[in-house]
Write a structure and sequence with these properties.
SAM-dependent_MTases_sf; 287 residues; DNA_methylase_N6_adenine_CS; seven-stranded mixed β-sheet; elongated; binds glutamine; two-stranded antiparallel ribbon
Length: 287
């Protein structure tokens, strides 16, 4: 086998330079800066074969997050695999909105004159996948109890490993939306969800990373909004009056999600935009 330097391997793999560096860094167990400063070093045959096999997978379209087995979200590294959706930067808007609601809640509790000790906020992530939303909330909010559900056992196992990796306690329940929860669970103060919201006939399902992601985490029925209807319809049973319900949704679903929430039990409904200026997250307060 001919000898190949780091620089040559990066050049010859037909991948975008950043992705090639991430994959080669993964094989060698080094970071990008190390690669840049050692680019004349020669790869062993084993390293070269390993790198070529990862590059082939990437060239065949497999998401880089699944190949590396990790993705960063809210400054934390999450394990990902094909049983969970890859966390997206857009979803950080949902987490930040949840954190600011929790912050406001604890400020108003400390301002109130009640002598009762402040009750920790009870937070729920419906359809948690890798656990990115629930675990980020638990990590950045000290005084809350976090619960999460998913219909997929493989996803829940991944989420439980991620919770352990970040040293946070999240209680996980298996099942579809609210059905996962035992009836005596008690009322929540904040419920967040990034449910499947792509229309079944959306052409994007056959492009890019989503081809490799679990369909059950992506497709929300023929009009893409089944999950919002299901979740809103039972929100009053599981949420306190004054609690916040917040969803991520598709760029063109702000209006329909506001309508579903308005017909449900929500008021003070607001939509927040993503960095591209599209409607992305809608929240409301339970009446
Ligand atoms: N935002 C994802 C995408 O467009 C979809 C996530 C979801 O359905 N919840 O690829």
């Amino acid at each position: 086998m001919s000898r190949v330097s780091i620089a040559a391997a990066l050049r010859e793999c037909k991948l975008d330079r950043l992705e090639a560096q991430l994959l080669l860094g993964h094989v060698l167990g080094v970071d990008r800066v190390w690669l840049l400063t050692h680019d004349d070093e020669v790869l062993s045959d084993e390293q070269r074969l390993q790198f070529e096999s990862l590059a082939d997978r990437r060239n065949a379209g497999e998401p880089i997050a699944y190949i590396l087995g990790v993705r960063e979200f809210m400054g934390l590294e999450f394990e990902v695999n094909p049983s969970v959706l890859i966390p997206r930067p857009d979803t950080e808007i949902l987490v930040e909105l949840g954190l600011s609601f929790l912050h406001e809640r604890s400020r108003s509790q400390s301002r109130s004159r009640s002598r009762e000790p402040a009750r920790p906020a009870r937070v729920l992530d419906l359809g948690t996948g890798s656990g990115a939303i629930a675990i980020s909330i638990a990590r950045y909010c000290d005084s809350c109890e976090v619960y999460a559900t998913d219909v997929s056992d493989a996803a829940l196992q991944t989420a439980a490993r991620n919770a352990q990796k970040h040293g946070v306690a999240v209680q996980f329940y298996a099942g579809s939306w609210w059905e996962a929860l035992p009836p005596e669970i008690g009322a929540f103060d904040l419920v967040l969800s990034n449910p499947p919201y792509i229309r079944a006939d959306d052409k994007h399902l056959s492009c890019g990373d989503v081809r490799f992601e679990p369909l059950s985490a992506l497709v929300g029925g023929n009009d893409g909004v089944n999950a919002y209807r299901d979740i809103v319809s039972r929100s009053r049973e599981f949420m306190r009056s004054g609690a916040m319900l917040a969803f991520e949704h598709g760029w063109d679903q702000g209006e329909v999600v506001r309508e579903i929430m308005g017909r449900g039990h929500c008021h003070k409904i607001e939509t927040h935009r993503d960095l591209a200026g599209h409607d992305r997250v809608t929240c409301g307060v339970i009446t």
